[in-house]
Design a protein that fits this description.
The chain is mostly beta strands. Helix content is about 10%, strand content about 35%. The strands form 2 sheets. Strands 1, 2, 3, 4, 5, 7, 8, 9, 11, 12 and 13 form an 11-stranded mixed beta sheet that branches.
Length: about 220
């Protein structure tokens, strides 16, 4: 398969400040100029255990954590709450890997219950924003492009749709994948390494989840 890198995009919107968590989902959803990259983790789209690209320097680390009421999307409504943990942002070999985790807990639901992305209104598109250099990055993808070289609205939408469907993220959106009740799912996304080697970035693990601001970037080639 042909893989294309996503390029940076200049943001004109004002970005949130602070360190760790934001209040709710990110309002900044820039339109990058390229393709997407993926993430790495331990949960695959079919819900089975897997291994992502590389390994985190601290697999159980929690850089920041936020808990919120279970979001509702277009599917079955679920109660309880979700806890989102940002584990690490690591750069090596021209790529940036974001590792995060989500725990859904609902004491009123059966122990074997599950909630999928559609139920929660979550889209697993990770966005990393470098506020200092006014650039944003999204995951790599193996087909299509975030910013296709076409003037046709239909072709552009189709290319972006293919890109989103083939992102290098885990778990990728899949009708069979569900977050288990009281279970923690490890997730990851692989994106282009940020230009200028910023010390901190803002991370939206997925569309529909809270924004984490001031996340420390670890450059593995410096260790």
């Amino acid at each position: 398969m042909r893989s294309r890198l996503v390029t940076a995009v200049v943001l004109s919107a004002a970005l949130l400040t602070g360190c760790t968590g934001g209040d709710g989902a990110s309002d900044a959803t820039p339109e990058p100029a390229g393709t997407q990259a993926g993430a790495e983790g331990t949960a695959q789209a079919d819900g089975t255990a897997g291994t992502g690209p590389g390994s985190a320097s601290a697999a159980d680390a929690v850089m920041a954590e936020q808990t919120l009421a279970t979001p509702h999307g277009g599917g079955e409504a679920h109660g309880g709450e979700v806890t989102v943990a940002l584990r690490s942002v690591e750069v090596a070999g021209g790529t940036m890997t974001v590792r995060w985790a989500l725990t859904w807990s609902d004491d009123d639901a059966p122990a074997d219950a599950g909630a999928n992305y559609y139920d929660m209104g979550i889209v697993p598109v990770t966005t990393v924003t470098d506020r200092e250099n006014l650039k944003a990055y999204r995951p790599f993808c193996t087909e299509g492009s975030w910013q296709p070289d076409t003037e046709s609205v239909g072709d552009r939408a189709a290319a972006q749709s293919r890109c989103q469907a083939t992102m290098l993220v885990s778990p990728l959106e899949n009708v069979f994948f569900k977050f288990p009740n009281h279970g923690t799912v490890e997730a990851w996304a692989v994106l282009p390494a940020p230009e200028g080697r910023p010390e901190t970035v803002d991370v939206a693990p997925a569309e529909g989840l809270p924004l984490f601001t001031g996340a420390t970037v670890t450059y593995l080639d410096e260790e």
